[in-house]
Specification:
single chain; alpha/beta; 6-stranded mixed sheet
């Protein structure tokens, strides 16, 4: 599996501006988490940008990816289709919830979370659609439109085993990495150029999990889903392990 997420850093290029730095984290067949790479974007990154990145990863022997989890990055699903045609693209449910709250008054957040929970915990896609139809479309049509636009990349995990859902429905696997990176970036304010920003992010990553306990916890979580992954994806995991 591959998780892709972005953090934003301040880079002085004439004027100080927020720039995304994309982090790709893989979970290997053995359940180990590995950072595949860092790439700076300019904020207008589309399918061509992602095609270049994914092709680079494939040329570095990332030959097959079962699922790629991300937060609605523009152009990424099209690039995945080109580089890894069999890969399932899954949007992060936690990010969808956060984005939903942006369209609602603070006093309604708890109610919206309660209404949305049956959608992303539904046993089937059909059940999720029934619950979705009962949402607050009149008061917050923008929230309904947000979920409709993300529906194709939102629903794959509804067709999967519950053990797999716990792994793929959120980018939490990479959120802990990003939290460490954000602390390092925030401590330095802004950077004179892109290279300086990438060096800071790289140094933050190299200092992750010095005791190895975080890796051990993740590997333990992964093992419970391993058999379900292998069955769901027609033995592709077993083929790699052989």
């Amino acid at each position: 599996m591959v998780f892709i997420d972005a953090i934003h850093v301040k880079i002085r290029d004439g004027a100080v501006a927020n720039r995304p730095v994309y982090v790709a984290l893989a979970v290997t067949v053995e359940g180990r988490r590995e950072i595949l790479g860092l790439w700076a974007g300019d904020g207008g990154d589309g399918a061509k940008h992602w095609l270049h990145i994914l092709t680079e990863l494939k040329n570095r022997s990332v030959n097959d990816v079962l699922m790629l989890v991300c937060d609605g990055l523009r152009g990424l699903p099209d690039a995945v289709e080109t580089v890894w045609p069999r890969t399932v693209v899954q949007t992060c449910v936690v990010h969808l919830l956060r984005n939903s709250f942006r369209y609602a008054a603070r006093q309604d957040w708890d109610k919206i979370a309660k209404v949305l929970k049956p959608v992303y915990t539904a046993p089937t896609e059909e059940a999720a659609l029934e619950w979705f139809a009962e949402m607050w479309g009149r008061k917050y049509p923008a929230i309904v439109r947000l979920w409709e636009n993300a529906w194709e990349e939102f629903t794959p995990f509804l067709r999967l085993d519950a053990e797999i859902r716990r792994i793929v429905c959120t980018t939490n696997a990479i959120e802990s990495v990003n939290a460490r990176i954000r602390r390092a970036v925030k401590a330095r304010g802004h950077f004179p150029n892109e290279t300086a920003a990438l060096k800071c992010v790289y140094m933050a990553i190299t200092s992750l999990d010095p005791t190895g306990r975080g890796q051990a916890r993740w590997t333990s979580r992964w093992k419970t889903a391993l058999n379900a992954f292998d069955i769901t994806f027609d033995g592709r995991l077993s083929a790699v392990r052989q």
